[in-house]
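Treating backbone geometry as a discrete language has practical consequences that deserve illustration. The sequence in question and its structure tokens are set out directly beneath this paragraph.
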Amino acid sequence: MAIKKSELYSSLWKSCDQLRAAGGMDASQYKDYVLIVLFVKYVTDKSKFDSNSLVIVPQGGSFDDMIKVKGKKNIGEEMNKIINKLAQANDLKGVIDVIDFNDEAKLGKPVEMINLLSGLIETFQNKSLDFGNNQAGGDDLLGDAYEYLMKNFATESGKSKGQFYTPAEVSRIMAKVIGIKDAKSQEQTIYDPTCGSGSLLLKAADEANVKVSIYGQEKDQATASLAKMNMILHNNETAIIWQGNTLSSPNSEWIENDGSLKRFDFVVANPPFSNKEWLIGVDAINDKWKRFDGFGIPPLKNGDYAFLLHLIKSMKSTAKGAIILPHGVLFRGNAEAEIRANIIKRGYIKGIIGLPANLFYGTGIPACIIVLDKENAQSRKGIFMIDANKGFVKDGNKNRLRSQDIQKIVDTFTNQLEIEKFSRLVRLEEIEKNEYNLNIPRYIDTQEPEDLQNIEAHLKGGIPVEDIEDLSKYWDVYPTLRKQLFTDGISKGFLKVNIPHDEIKRTIFSNTEFITFSDNVKKTFANWKHKHEAYLKSLDIKVHPKKLIQELSESILAQFSNIKLIDKYDIHQHLMDYWQEVMQDDVYVITQDGWKLNITLDKKNEWYCDLLPKELVINKYFNTEKTAIEDLEESKDEITRQLDEMREENSGEGQVFFEVEKVSKKAMKEIKQQEWDEEDKIIIINYEKLLLLEGGFAKRIRVAKSDLDKTLLNKLKSLSVDEIKTLIVDNKWMKTLESSVNSEMDRISQKLMQRIKELVERYAEDLPSIEKEVEMLSAKADQHWIKMGFKI
């Protein structure tokens, strides 16, 4: 039986928790133990499946050999030997053998170490964790597992050690905006001069339709080793990862015959922000690679532009690229202002994407993606800017880009769409007038207009026309609704409401155009559903889940692209959320076991089905039985309510239930033994009758639920494959997604209704009416004073 991806990754992370609990290590250290065992497991599985694998797994150097040493007294020493043999056979010395599995300071004393390492090996023994047929970048179980672990490691490593990982969401944007998808040949190259663990480099390379050649350099030895392992884990054994300082010592093998830096077709980078030590080992004035010639030398204590200029110098004349830098590079003055102007004048910057703050693990400051393009530099007339700082969701103590945020950014940039308060093409003449300052707020105003109160409306009455016209997107869809709700007021430029306040909701929801639009939204989803039902029911072990969800998401975006009021990216997000929460696991199970239902007992000896929740099948086949149980529960609840009421009414001092917190059998026995008057005895008798009735209903409910559970289990076992497909695709997946789409319609309707009610209430009373009421109340008060004998 296949284990769900989410459960599998949770088990992997659990093993990490065990290592952490052992003491002596933080996330930046214990990740190395987990990832090295993951590496050994992968290459072992792959060698069994792929005879052309470039990684040699020698005798005594496999994961199978690790299994043999489980529980042994010298397990740490033996694991070191196994890893050393694998390293020697593959020129991986100093890469996978840098961690000591026999380190008592980190792994504990012998008994603790034995249990810990045996448990780690056992985690990767999971039968569902088979990397033999891994398709990196496709349905790659390994890639997803690695991504899951790296994200968690980065989250827990803290500010100083989390920079080895670029968030996958940001990597995805960069991979798409550099246009590497159009790569035509394996001879084409991609380069990352500060590659960290290699996650950004791999995401970008994976976007290409051909297998491009990968180059990366990383200063930190341990992180460079991580990147080398990562390349092999993702089926890129030929990737070249060089350890060293990019700015002071670019890989000597990449230096051309004329002494210049090697040039690449595509480049990406996420360098350390505002590096104060970038000049160590660098002769900036006489830079032998001429990276600063014609641009200027970056500030002594800030290396942002040093990395950017290195990247530009590493680009071929037709190259494309992207780099992540702090927002300060867009507007800081002095030396950086000169460099920025020189880069802009050469036309190298194609676009700038402003990102939300607190996305990255090493820092909380906001950053931007600078998109580079040398090929079209000479003809560049402007820079395309996107301000995406508001599109994110909170994720623990960090912010995270949602799928809809990524999709909107990529679509907008790729198609150069100008969207109010989000994106625009800024002409170079405008940038020049601003002295080459690229601060995005100078060019894109994202401020929402303030909801101003209209003094004249408060004085004279009526709702300002401009407030109603601000809702024009609704009136474009429901033109008659505006006429139903409003007519001209007493004063020009003001409207009055035609209907009572409490009739607004009914008027909106009963409007013919509102109903037609709602039906159209439902029809749009029904059409999308019809397009994909047969395909989804044909899924088998050959399906690639990542390709599947890409097709579905692109299709639903296209389906809702012309529906007014509905934001297609909100619909897209509903699909992606459901994919992450439920559908991905379901599809993964189907790729392993087909459309077979796996029924399992939990720790409480209660059964559950991996693909079909009980409630779903009950609603489909046993609604009568469900209703009967609900009726019993309603009857029992009514009796419970009566019992609570009797207890509440008779809990005072000297009464039957005084100081009785819970009326148990024992409590009732003690109560009955006391002396009570006839009225109290009747209360006790009636209470006992109700208790008996409550117990009787409780028993009937238990029996009914038990009978239904048995009937349900038999039904599941008798379902045909076609019935299972219908239940999963139609009743589970599509019904859930349809409900999500309908919720968007409800949200839009509620937003309109609330705004109208707000305006109506705001201007419900004008000043003359209030003054008139005050005069009337004042006159009444005066009459009261006179009656009481006071002179006014």
The first strand starts at residue 189 and ends at 192. The first helix runs from residue 5 to 21. Residues 134-139 have pLDDT under 50 and may be disordered.
